[in-house]
Design goal:
The complex is a heterodimer of chains A (267) and B (259). Chain A has 2 domains: 24-95 and 174-265, 3-Layer(aba) Sandwich (Rossmann fold), CATH 3.40.50.300; 105-173, no CATH class. Chain A contains 7 helices and 10 strands. Chain A has helices at residues 64-72, 112-123, 131-141, 157-170, 187-203, 215-221, 249-265; strands spanning 24-32, 39-48, 53-58, 79-84, 87-88, 96-99, 175-179, 208-212, 224-228, 234-239. In chain A, the strands form 2 sheets. In chain A, strands 6-7-8-3-9-10 form a 6-stranded mixed beta sheet, with helices on both faces. The radius of gyration of chain A is 18 Å and the shape is globular. Helix content of chain B is 80%, strand content 0%. Chain B has a single domain (55-253), classed as MetI-like (MetI-like fold, Orthogonal Bundle). The longest helix of chain B has 33 residues, at 54-86. Chain B is an all-alpha fold. Classes of the chains: A alpha/beta (267), B mainly alpha (259). At the A-B interface, strand 6 and helix 2 of A face helix 7 and helix 8 of B. The structure holds adenosine-5'-triphosphate and magnesium ion (MG). Adenosine-5'-triphosphate binds next to helix 1 of chain A.
Chain lengths: 267, 259
Amino acid sequence: MSAPSAHPAGAPTTGGNETRQATLTVRNASIAYGPKNPVIVNNVSFDVNQGEAFILIGRSGCGKSTLLRALAGFQELRSGQILLDGKNVTTPGPDRMMVFQNFDQLLPWRTAVQNVEFAIKKAGSKGAASVRQRALDALQMVHLSAAADKFPSQLSGGMQQRVAIARALAVRPRIVLMDEPFGALDAMTRASLQAEVLRLHKEMNMTLVFVTHSIEEAVYLGDRIGLMTPQGAFDGIFPNAFQGQVDSPEGTEFASELRTRLEASAV
Amino acid sequence: MNKPIQKTAVRLTVVAVVVLAWELVPRIAQISPIVLPPFSSAVAVLWERALDGSLWQSLLASLSLLVRGVGLGILIAIVMTAGCFIIPGGREVLQTLVGLFNPLPAIAILPLALLWFGFSERSMILVIVFSVVWAMSLNAYTGFSTIRPVLVDVGRNLGLRGPRLIASIYFSAALPHLLSGLRIGWAFAWRTAVAAELVYGAAGGQGGIGWQIYLDRSEFNTGGVFAGLLTIVLVGLVVEYGILNTIEMRTVKKWGMVN
Ligand SMILES: Nc1ncnc2c1ncn2[C@@H]1O[C@H](COP(=O)(O)OP(=O)(O)OP(=O)(O)O)[C@@H](O)[C@H]1O
Ligand SMILES: [Mg+2]
């Protein structure tokens, strides 16, 4: 078995692009819940470049959500740095839009289109078209125009996640952060939403950090895949040549190599 | 037959039986109308007062006090609760205040209000505000503290903090609780308003429903007393089913926030 070649965490991984400033830079970030508690995320470093889909994968409880919430600015670092376009991330802000796992992340008192409009307005995001038009455009991107005037309680889980994605994109953030957004969906809906995200990532050049514990999802969506150990450290960052082709023989093999590595790191 | 229709049928039957008993028992048992006049004579008095306008006058007097008191009470409760959520340590302050004052029947502070403001509208409004404010704060507090954390995250993600976060996320998310606070608070307030007039007479300006009952009692006009009681119940039904239920149907129920 040839283990996939890992770049040491923190080292430039873009090969030849070292001069370009990454959109997001994480340097030696450690996170703990409270000053007396042990670190959950342990000295993690990586870059996410403009237009890149970066996947965080690891066992349940390894600290993926904790790290993602720190990128969003919800979670303080114990040490290290998170930089967005070279500026320190300290508070949440609409330049980093989150899509959560929960279906109940939409405001229940607003329709689908109103949820998107709300985000555009509150984020103070400027655009040429009217707020309503931009919201409708965002819903069209996720093929939900027909449900624009429905309340979240009238939408299926998959549709609610589509609205959440539309809401995140409509704000035109620098980066979209997704925390297992499809974890609670049935397999068919999940597959169609994965295809949707991959398409949006490519068409819109959307910069993405995506948390999952599904290796297939990681290989399908990722430009690079960061593997986390159960101790919250990185076990390597792997460039992925099989984006969108996880079902090809090579893609399947790459996935199984990653799986072996992930399982080995668990012990 | 479906459920809501069955329920309505049962309710109407109960009302009909109560009315029928009220009409028949005084007649059959030949009870003096000073003790218990039949339903129809209470309705007759009500009708008469509706025609000569005195019913509307006292109703208006009571409701105007009620609306101002409840409105002010809600405002104070929401501002106070929101403030306590923004200021660090504010939640404990609020909990303590509610714990201290919620058990106190609002009517019990009427003597105090009379000492401060005399027999004036202000005394009545103070008492009504007091009757609303704690129930409303308690419910607003529950609503604010049981908000789904992810909705707060969504608001913060968009850069909302402090008062803006409260106004655009907490307030709507807590609406089911705010409405039940309103339900409880208004009922307290209505009883308190009537009771205050009953015990202390008209406090300034015109008398309301309670004052009318007070007068009828002193004139041994039992039919009038019953007409007053009927009015109180009818106002209760209109507010409860006409207004509050409609608000619920058009908001939290429509949005699927409550079943
Ligand atoms: N608010 C919190 N306070 C204290 N500990 C927490 C908190 N949230 C998470 N943890 C702990 O931090 C660790 C990492 O949690 P985290 O949610 O980041 O894991 P995860 O990798 O996202 O797991 P999953 O795949 O199950 O979502 C866990 O041990 C968890 O118990
Ligand atoms: Mg998680």
